[in-house]
# Entry
Amino acid sequence: MSIRMKTPPRMPPDAADAARALRARPAGEGQPSADAVVRPDGEITFAIDALNLWYGAKQALTGVGLEIARRKVTALIGPSGCGKSTLIRCLNRMNDLIPGVTITGRVDYRGVDIYGADVDPVEVRRRIGMVFQKPNPFPKSIYENVAFGARVNGFRGNLDDLVERSLRRAALWDEVRGDLRKSGLALSGGQQQRLCIARALANNPDVILMDEPCSALDPIATLKIEDLMRELADDYTIVVVTHNMQQAARVSDYTAFMLTDEETTGRLIEYAPTETMFTQPADQRTEDYISGRFG
# Structure
């Protein structure tokens, strides 16, 4: 199924002002050194180039450029306000839903610029699912939570099989198989988060974005989500925002460190294989952050 459409999206009214501000910035300002951003091995799911984003007149991302590997876990780390969540929402055009947002640069998903004029953002979000910080099950049964998106997208197969398969992939089936008519809101926090993951999987995505998926969970529920992420990476590209350095070290294959300072907002500082990032960082600021000296 194509992600393209014929009707171009309307540009935000302040796009021209944002573009002028971008042109006024000296070339290369705020960019990481060449040896601080690696190119992942193997296939690439996202190629991000010179990505800038403004909320009205406030810039939140500045010249971000990196490539995200297919069927790997990539972690985005950095202090609060550095643009991690903004960046992850750029990967499936969730920021389009916020009034006054302006975006320049490219986000190529498997060779297609998802911000191209002929791209359908609804199809982008179907292929690139998202799990949010706080579990947000629908006020429906467990079964209907999983089946809802498939129905909306015109699924014609066996819904019972789809629900079971999605719940199994989310490591939740054995816990709820006898209570599928129970409200999703009656589950524990960790179970609700896995239900949201099952709901995303039911839409047959290629990518799963996770914005601090464990921040509201206890350690046992967090461990289950982390184990699930590693299992899902066999079949899906996963990008996760986390403030937990130990979590990033445990679950991710690659890590991107972002920072906002007095001069530049939403800046990529370093991007490398996780083991390299945590043992031999290329930038002193990365070492200071992961060692707890700031942030």
